[in-house]
Write a structure and sequence with these properties.
The chain is α+β, with helices and mostly antiparallel strands and about 190 residues long. Helix content is about 40%, strand content about 10%. It contains six helices and five strands. It has helices at about 10-25, 55-60, 70-75, 80-85, 130-150, 175-185, and strands at about 90-95, 100, 105-110, 110-115, 125-130. It has a three-stranded antiparallel beta sheet with strand order 1-2-5, with no helix packed on it. Strands 3-4 form a two-stranded antiparallel ribbon.
Length: about 190
Amino acid sequence: MRNGGLAARTIGHAHRVLGAALSDAERDGAVVKNVCKLQKAPRIADAEMAIVRDLPGFIDKLRGTRLYVPAMVALFTGMRLGEVLALRWSHVDLDGKIIAVREALEWTKAHGIRFKVPKSRAGRRDITLPEILVDVLREHRKAMLELRMQLGAGRLPDDGLLFANLAGEPLQPSNVSSDWGEIADHIGLP
């Protein structure tokens, strides 16, 4: 994999998946030995990790981009992309400053985009929001309501997604990732 030009991070992901599968196979007697235990995954070089040292400057660069609000949610909550894209207004309490993570979005060839519950109880959690994020979400909600009124779409449904297309349908995770790559290049992220 290294000679094929794959990044250490990609190899590490493959190593973890293969190692888990071989551990199961070893436990079930399908293989004699889990060879992933013999060879460790490569370390990720510091140069591969993007570290933001100027958070206010980073936020200023993001402001005005189409992914500003989802990026702020991810940045200040630690939520994964699928969790951010599955977030519904009914799970956001701006007055109580809490987001309830109850589902995630995923795309599969078999089912397309679908919602799923977290795999573990730890994945089902409530996150306390800092004031900066509460303000960003209030502005986002206001902008969404104004846009819906201009389009004649009426009020936001209680179970409406925070981040959706104009029809209220969930965003495609791969499209959001591609958009993030373009924005990262534009604002000068490594």
